Amino acid sequence: MNTLVVYDSQHGNTERVVQAIGRALGTPGEAQAVRVGEVSPGRLTGLELLVGSPTQRFRPTPAITGWLRSIPANGLGGAGVAAFDTRIPVAEAGSVLPGFFARLAGPGAYAAQHIAEGVSPPR
Question: InterPro entries this protein is in (predicted)?
Fold first, then answer.
């Protein structure tokens, strides 16, 4: 499994989460963490993709938002996709990252639509 973790970090919190994820994923070379400005959307095909962002005014950072919008509709090329954000508690605000993935992956895409709607995918 080759995992690419694309992230932005303003105060270091998201970067610390990314470092912990890297340690948990294990073998160097199988997982790579890259700041959002250092990766092009063309590198996503066939990877497991994890996107992490702090929130600013209840949204991902402008760098993450712009990068996500730059991914063509078919640019994920079968990539497994997940996202996380570092923010205030869920009860106080919702994440908008899953909605980006639902739009990118399209209707019926594995889990993305269900995540964006806030429900569990069928088992």
Answer: Flavoprotein-like_sf (IPR029039)
Q: What torsion, rounded to 10 degrees, do the Cα atoms 38, 42, 45, 48 define?
A: 20
Residue given tokens 């993450």 in the structure block: 64
pLDDT digits (tens, 9 = 90+) for 47-64: 888 999 988 777 889 999
Q: Are 32 and 3 in contact (CB under 8 A)?
A: yes
The pair phi, psi for residue 73, each rounded to 5°, is: -55, -35
Instruction: Give CA separation, 42 vs 80, 93, 109, in Å.
Output: 15, 32, 20
pLDDT digits (tens, 9 = 90+) for 73-122: 778 877 888 888 887 555 555 566 666 655 665 555 444 444 445 444 44
Residue 24's domain is classified under what CATH number? 3.40.50.360
Task: Name the domain count of the chain.
Answer: 1
Domain extent, residue 35, equals: 3-117
